[in-house]
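Below is a typical protein record.
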Amino acid sequence: MTTAPYLGLRPTGPGGPPAPVGREELLARLERALHTRGRALLTGPAGVGKTELALAAATRAEARGETVLWLATLPSDREIPGASAAALVASVAATVSLARPGGRRREPRPSDKASTGRTSTAPEASAVFDELPGPQRTAVAMLCREAPLDAGGWDPIALRLGIAQILRTLTRRGPVLLVVDGVQHVDADSADLLRFALHLAPPALRVVAVETPEPYGETDEPYRAPHRPDDPHAAHLWVPSEADVLLVPPLHADEIAELLIHHRLPSRMAGRIHRASGGNPRLALAVGRSLADARTPVHHAEALTLSGRARDLARQLLGAAPLAVRETLLLAALALRPSSTLVRRAGRPNAEADLAAAERAGLVSLAEDGSVTFTAGLLPSTLVHDACWAERSAGHAALAEVVDDPVEAVRHRALATDSPDEDLAAEVADAADLARRRGNSALAAELALLAAESTPGRHGTRRIARLVDAAEEAARAARADLAMRAATDLLARDAVPADRVRARLAVLDTAGQGLTSLDEMYVHAMEDSEGDTALRAAVQLRLAVKYVLADGDPQRSRTAAVESAALAASMGDPRTAAQALTVQARMERALGAPDAEAVLAQARALELAERPLGIRNAAQILTIRHALFDDRLTDARDELNALLPLVQRRGSVEDTIELFSTLAAIESRMGACAASLAHAGQSLALTLEAGLSPGPAWYTLALAETAGGSFARAASYARRSVQASEEEGDRVFLSRSRYALGRVQLINGDVAAALETLRRVQADERAQSTVDPSMLRWHEELAEALLAHDAGDEALALLDEVRPVAARLGRSTVLLGCDRAHALWLAAEGRTDEAVLLLTRTAEAFGRAGLPLERGRALIALARVERRRRRRSAAQSALQTAASVFERAGAAPWLALACESPAGPAGEGSGASSGSEEALPALSSLTEAELRLARLVGQGASNQEAAAKLYLSVKTVEARLTRIYQKLDVRSRAQLATALRP
């Protein structure tokens, strides 16, 4: 038990510390329950984050000046009468730092304040203990073993009243929050004392109880519910109502990703970690740390490293279950579709009761039809991992006798035997074909590999053929782990080069964005494909993808794609030719080549000739994305909506993800913000479910949040995408996610950070030789950031560089973005009349192009310039029009921006400060960069401090400050501060 006082563990800001990851809403509910009812019970399985949530509430209470008592129990406390009550008294004594029960006093020590974190708000010890009547003080001293126990023990009535009086006294000087962490371990005597004390406590005492339910009790019969005394509430400190009880649920996959990032762990496998942990934060962090500690980075095509701490935590959860329950769970773990009926028929007569006990422990969930689902993938894998071969074999043999599906029966029979058998292997191969025809590609991949592994060694050629089939089946099912297993087995055998190439291609096809660590596999594939034109075409196609994603080299990618298309065409392979031409068209577009659309048309013609439609879709998807780049948004949306149902029915999960992502981008440009957020969310959910890198999906969510959600969430998703893309070595999405981040930083007014981020985008795109400015519209954003940073010449040079390219390629809406940035340059040069005319025309053109958010942004810029011209009514009119545009689009963050008075880049500053500037006409002569510096210096910043804050040199600050003094006609910092006051 914990006898020390509660110590705040995190620094607190004005609004208190942040909530634990994914627990913002639950923390708000907890605080509401404490405010309205004074009591709250947090309950949930071990490791789900109950203590972390209580800690956040306690830290916030302490930040408000409340006294916090923290009582943490241990399992052994339950066997010691009065242990928890004694710990509570000790905690009170440590908190007030002065007196001890039994009347013995001591003087405060200097270390008291350091150890407790408070003395000024806590009442004097005499007010807590010395006011107790003699019998109560003696009883409390006996409880804490600071006075000898009488033969009859302490006076129970005096002790009850004494504990109640101590808590009442604590509340006289202010609110008190008592946290009991592990209420299930409170001994019966202490529970009785605390119930009585809380019953008499004033409203100023609020209580949070943290409970981990005990599903098994102390009985040897696991199918019986845990023992409960006659009073159903004897284990509680008060009779809880529904409003008091807060169930702490597992985290969603996206929240697990945020948790991993928060703890500086790799997030690229967040989906697989979520499946392994079931959303349990403790398990997820253990898995994440095991991956981070691995000697070599774990690839998407490899099994997760689940040894060490992760396995130990799973064993702790499973080890609490009685042996009979674990044996029942092992059968469920071995079954493909476990149910209570199936497990009972397989030899566990008490299956329903065993599984019900496991459900109470949070190990499984039971559906109405009796189907069983493990709450965390780590649990069944640990059960199987720790079982001996005899146990696994017996379980599979029992299941083979009772399953009603011949495919599953064959699977269990194969897994029940350790001896290769050709007849059995043939049956398993037939079962794999049947599973494929049913549409269960994941099971088909597993069975294909099992068929290969069941083939006797004397049939080496047949085994190799089955391993090739297994690898390719795994690639179709996006089962990277099975593809790697099959390829590893095959490459260790005497396979012909063609088979080795096909196995390696299967692994490459399941690698997702993580291609940087597979260089050796590409080299060997090229060597083995020598002399085989069809295979060389397939390898060149994969190289074309690698060159752009991992190496950031579109020129080399185009060359490889051209060669692949030519080789495939010479062999009459339209499928590979279509895929290669699609990659070539993508590179041609990026490089600004004029024939990109013609190449894409060839690819699409080959793809559409294949039947049934919806299986191969790369060219059609790229056609839609080109329409998006050109802002032909209605065409793009209509074509996508026609393709999406076919892809969902017949295509790959990667194609479905890309279509949802593209649809979200289209809708964010069109101003359908709510739909954009919904489809971006679907893209992320599918990505995490498939175990793919979440970087691209987070980028899409950043765009959708920027349009219609929250700028803060958009920045968060963009940062996540940057981190995941860096982990994967994905050059394409690293550049895109940095663009999304820099754009949000600019909108939020964080010009220095935006400038740094967007300069990195510029460097990335130039390193990749990207020419077409429509694919990633960073030029206008960087130009605006440069203008806000008082680098007008550089901004103008950038615009002059991109305009001819956009005009040559016919990228009309890119030119409109340049016009908006150029108008801001005109305003910075003092040519405000020209700026107003250009912004007015630009806003109208954006409206005609069907880009409402871009129109609204141009109107906000127009309002800023009109404010500089001191035309308040014109500025207000522009803002009202912008607000109307944003409201119709559902663009919540932009609407909030339009409702503020513009003071800086995209609305920097608060409405109040802008209003004060309206009363100071002299300030309108300052540029935005000068105004920011003037504010910093006016608030007392030195030149060095201002330079560090604005990422400028001290010389630049000095020169800019001289211009500010001249424009405002001031000669000192004191006069500048006066000039800035309203």
In short: The two ends are 59 Å apart (CA to CA). Residues 1-15, 98-123, 218-233, 901-920 have pLDDT under 50 and may be disordered.
